[in-house]
């Protein structure tokens, strides 16, 4: 196992644990994006560029984005509920 | 159950899981060697008989194209579901809500605007070269859809509305899904099997090689761009 592979595995382990330890959903979405980058690097180091590209678009763009958008939408509706009540 | 008992149970379960995982992983063959039989056969088969250089997309858009058709329809249904749910809920919002985004910094506006063109080029490249290099319709489509996100991040929400970005995403998504299904039907009409190749294979490594593989990559790109953009627009712009 090369140094690059070990480094990528370590990055995935650390960032994956960080996602589980962060409690605030908004911060968690951002940390999950970092985890996605680590995952993409891991796939790239293991010579799977197609999967790495998928990991970049899904784990670093699509998933955190959906979480952030949903949180934003929920907050909007909550503040609207307060205005009405 | 007391906190202590739960901790003991959790630690025991995690320990057992860690043991099983370690056992399983140590039994795996080393990465890359020796390659399994299909790792040798499939790229050769695709390069010789289908003239596809990128074996991954050769599998997804030729050998296993029916599976990709199903995935297309899953994304189509997911975007449709998100749009239906959010449009019913969106009615409660006041007409002017979200017309002007809250103060967007100059740096963010400049950054967003500057990235739009390079991202369109990158996304189009990924979509068009699916049969040659890593990437393809799905990855390129998400990159292209991210352009909508940049426009939004640059504080141009009102412009997205004026451009009628949402109705456009509706049409693009539906057109992409329909085109994939039509290419599949083309296989039935011209060759006799669903999604069978009915175009010339071209020469290996050329932009137009691989028969229907680049065509399916492009229509997937169109469908994914529309689908992901539609989901984002439904969340960000709301009622248009």
Q: Can you tag this structure with a few keywords?
A:
heterodimer; A: 85 residues; mainly alpha; 3 helices; B: 240 residues; 9 helices
Care to describe what's here?
The complex is a heterodimer of chains A (85) and B (240). By secondary structure, chain A is mainly α. Chain A has one domain. Chain A has helices at residues 3-21, 25-45, 49-84. Chain A is elongated. Chain A starts with a helix and ends with a helix. Chain B is globular. Chain B has one domain. With 240 residues, chain B is mostly helical. Chain B starts with a helix and ends with a helix. Helices cover 71% and strands 0% of the residues of chain B. The model of chain B is unreliable at 94-100 (pLDDT under 50). Chain B contains 9 helices and no strands. In chain B, helix 4 (65-90) runs antiparallel to helix 8 (165-190), helix 4 runs parallel beside helix 9 (212-236) and helix 5 runs antiparallel to helix 6 (137-153). The interface between A and B is medium-sized, with 23 and 26 residues.
Q: What is the structure about, briefly put?
A:
The complex is a heterodimer of chains A (85) and B (240). Chain A is mainly α and 85 residues long.
Alpha-carbon distance between the termini of chain B?
A: 52 Å
Q: On the 0-100 scale, what is the average pLDDT of chain A?
A: 89
Mean pLDDT of chain B: 88
Secondary-structure element pattern of chain A, one letter each: HHH
The residue fraction in helices of chain A comes out at over 70%
Largest sheet data of chain B: none
Span between termini of chain A: 61 Å
Q: What is the oligomer described by this structure?
A: heterodimer
**How many domains comprise the coordinates of chain A?**
1
Low-confidence runs of at least 5 consecutive residues of chain A: none
Strand content of chain A: under 5%
Q: What's the total number of strands of chain B?
A: 0
Number of strands of chain A: 0
Rounded radius of gyration of chain B (Å)? 23 Å
Helix/strand structural class of chain B: mainly alpha
Question: How many helical stretches of chain A?
Answer: 3
Structural class of chain A: mainly alpha
Strand content of chain B: under 5%
Radius of gyration computed on alpha carbons of chain A? 17 Å
Anisotropy-based shape of chain A: elongated
Number of domains of chain B: 1
């Amino acid at each position: 196992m090369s140094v690059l592979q070990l480094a990528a595995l370590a990055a995935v382990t650390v960032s994956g644990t960080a996602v589980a330890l962060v409690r605030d959903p908004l911060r968690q979405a951002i940390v999950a994006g970092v985890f996605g980058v680590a995952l993409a690097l891991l796939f790239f180091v293991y010579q799977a560029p197609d999967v790495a590209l998928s990991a970049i678009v899904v784990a670093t763009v699509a998933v955190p984005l959906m979480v952030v958008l949903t949180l934003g939408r929920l907050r909007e509706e909550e503040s609207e509920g307060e205005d009405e009540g | 159950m007391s906190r202590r008992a739960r901790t003991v149970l959790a630690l025991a379960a995690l320990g057992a899981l860690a043991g099983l995982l370690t056992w399983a992983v140590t039994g795996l063959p080393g990465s890359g060697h020796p390659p399994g039989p299909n790792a040798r056969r499939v790229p050769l088969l695709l390069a010789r008989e289908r003239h596809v250089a990128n074996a991954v997309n050769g599998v997804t858009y030729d050998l296993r194209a029916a599976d990709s058709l199903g995935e297309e329809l899953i994304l189509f249904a997911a975007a449709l579901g998100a749009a239906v749910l959010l449009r019913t809920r969106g009615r409660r919002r006041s007409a002017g809500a979200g017309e002007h985004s809250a103060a967007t910094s100059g740096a963010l506006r400049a950054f967003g605007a500057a990235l739009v063109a390079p991202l369109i080029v990158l996304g189009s490249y990924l979509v068009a070269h699916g049969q040659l290099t890593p990437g393809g319709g799905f990855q390129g489509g998400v990159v292209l859809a991210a352009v909508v996100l940049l426009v939004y991040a640059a504080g141009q929400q009102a412009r997205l509305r004026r451009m009628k970005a949402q109705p456009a995403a509706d049409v693009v998504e539906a057109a992409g899904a329909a085109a994939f299904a039509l290419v599949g039907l083309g296989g039935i009409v011209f060759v006799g099997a669903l999604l069978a190749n009915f175009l010339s294979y071209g020469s290996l490594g050329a932009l137009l090689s691989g028969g229907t593989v680049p065509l399916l990559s492009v229509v997937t790109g169109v469908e994914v761009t529309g689908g992901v953009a539609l989901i984002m627009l439904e969340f960000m712009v709301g009622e248009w």
